Fold:
Amino acid sequence: MDAKHGRSPKVVVIGGTYVDMAIRCGQIPSAGQKVTGSALSYTTTGPGPNQAIEASLCGCEVYLISKVGGDPFAQMARNILAENKVNTDLVYTAEAKNTGLVVTLVNAEGENASCYYPGANSALQTLDISEAEQIISESDVCLIHGQLPTEAIVSALRCAELYGVKVILNPARPLEQQGQKECDLPIEYFKSDILIPNLYEAAAITEQSTANIRTAKLIGSDLVARGVGTAIITMGRRGCMVVDRNSADHIPAFEIELVDHTGRGDAFAGALAAYCAVENDIRAAAKFASAAGALACTKFGSIEALPTKADIIEMLQKEDISQQ
Ligand SMILES: Nc1ncnc2c1ncn2[C@@H]1O[C@H](COP(=O)(O)OP(=O)(O)OP(=O)(O)O)[C@@H](O)[C@H]1O
Ligand SMILES: [Mg+2]
Structure:
């Protein structure tokens, strides 16, 4: 991807920031039980940093809009973003809050139990988006992950629309709707240029009880009928379905040896945004993003497992050669 208009493609990412704290223990304790841990790791993660770093690894100039707490984890997040050339001017601090945290216990069989605490992410608000208006208006793509307060997402969608900035929205449940059965999304979501739910998110939004590769076309058409420009429904190792007004195309997944699927959705989204910041070919973008999602499955971890543009291009070229 070459720079457009003599500058790097510019992507603004809006998404939650978390610290992932994992403790290995012989067995996961039940209520009232105490167990001893044998290993501890903690790293920055979350759709915000993961997607922003992926877009940066694909050669874009990237800003992250997110909120962290007044604790040392906030600096850890800023450092890893800066190391990966993501601009952190719009990573706000809620001093009285903690940075979002996911605590995971992993047992000897590799099974896990997690508790996630949104912390400062739940304080991202309209005012924060207003402060970012200039950066949003100058971006080629605004990539938004839905697991944030609805008010912040709707403000960002309105701001991007006002300036004609291409919107890619991952319609994960807003923070206020976590744990609810029904999924009640604001109408602004359906004005997105590209909506990228996974199959289960897509089925919940369209109230479809069966979610499989056959119903994905139907679900995609439903989303397009509601106003979405293009729906890309991701289906893990079954690939993704790209649906717009003209056609529905299945893009198969790349074959890989699965090591750890953490971060696959974020790698897909970040790479898609990077491609769309330069080119308008949505199917080629989905293929590029699929390679990123597949590559993220070949390594442990989230940020550490994100592929670079060169890794993605190599995977695409290998496939071209094998098909000749
Ligand atoms: N096992 C796999 N093998 C090859 N490609 C994969 C695999 N899993 C995911 N992908 C690629 O990554 C894309 C996104 O994956 P998926 O649909 O699982 O996202 P997700 O459910 O949003 O993931 P996450 O839980 O990380 O948010 C898929 O459409 C596919 O192209
Ligand atoms: Mg996802």
User: Anything to note?
Assistant: DSSP finds ten helices and 14 strands in the chain. The first strand starts at residue 10 and ends at 14. The mean pLDDT is 94. The two ends are 24 Å apart (CA to CA).
